[in-house]
Amino acid sequence: MKPLIPSAFAVLSAVTFTTPVWAATASSDAQQRGYEIAAQSDRSDRGFGVSRVDVMMHLEDASGRKSSRSLSMLTKEVADEDKGDKSLIVFNSPADVQDTKLLSHAQILEPDDQWLYLPALKRVKRISSANKSGPFVGSEFAFEDFTAQELNKYEYRYIDEQQCGEFTCAVVDRIPKYENSGYTRQRALIDLSHYQVRKIDFYDRKEAHLKTLTLSDYQHYQDKFWRPQTMHMENHQSGKKTTLVFSDYDFSVRLSNRDFVKSSLK
């Protein structure tokens, strides 16, 4: 964001204002520190190859009415950090969403490729880049939330450290570099013990606090991969909430690129 210059100073055209060297250095250091923490978090769990997990999605509206959905998530890791992973979400129940599928090919700065299969219509719909900030099947997760965790999608800025539960966490702002994001920035709390994300505050295009994602109940699989068992998203503007509860992670499932192509959705 550009600094605001008081109008009284703007008329002093004969005077040149420059950013102090120490301020520029501090800004550069904050960016580097933020990137290093985010990179360590991202790389701490790399190398899993493929995974499958069962998920219960619990929805709660502003009046407290609740509903639940069952789904499965499949992921194929792409080792190159300049390319994104591939994922497939398949709804198992209830009947009105059964066999609905979301296929995602994450990109870095180019628009993510996403396709939604709607079984009632027996058609595959491509999700345009302009609609990625929209809600995913009525939840408080946006389409972009399922593909936007790639390291190089953001610029980073280290803010501070603070306690988050039993951990000391780094506070890191991440600013989307890709177009059509629904967020101007995200403020993440990353623990400095295992370098896992504990909380993310999302700010909308008007810089208003939109929602908060809390990640908890982490488990360590194969002594390598940390995964949260619960992800709770609360929308502060609508009062709605969505909780994802994960179970039965499988890192030995047999998946290939053929499982992540558009033609496999039908």
Question: Can you walk through the features of this model?
Answer:
Pfam families: LolA_like (PF17131). It comes from Pseudoalteromonas ruthenica. The protein has helices at residues 7-10, 21-43; strands at 50-60, 66-76, 86-93, 101-105, 113-118, 123-126, 154-164, 167-176, 185-191, 197-203, 209-221, 225-235, 241-250. The protein is mainly beta and 266 residues long. The chain has a single domain (41-264), classed as Lipoprotein localisation LolA/LolB/LppX (outer membrane lipoprotein receptor (LolB), chain A). The chain has a 13-stranded antiparallel beta sheet. Strand 12 (225-235) and strand 13 form a beta hairpin. The N and C termini lie far apart (45 Å). Residues 1-17 have low confidence and may be disordered.
Query: Which stretches of 5+ consecutive residues score pLDDT under 50?
Result: 1-17
Amino- and carboxy-terminal Cα gap: 45 Å
CATH fold call? outer membrane lipoprotein receptor (LolB), chain A
Count of helix runs = 2
- Overall pLDDT, averaged? 88
Give the tally of structural domains. 1
CATH architectural grouping: Clam
Biggest β-sheet, characterized?
A: 13 strands, antiparallel
Question: What proportion strand?
Answer: 35-45%
Strand order of the largest sheet: 6-5-4-3-2-1-13-12-11-10-9-8-7
CATH class: Mainly Beta
Mind telling me the C-alpha Rg? 20 Å
How would you spell out the order of helices and strands? HHEEEEEEEEEEEEE
* Structure classification: mainly beta
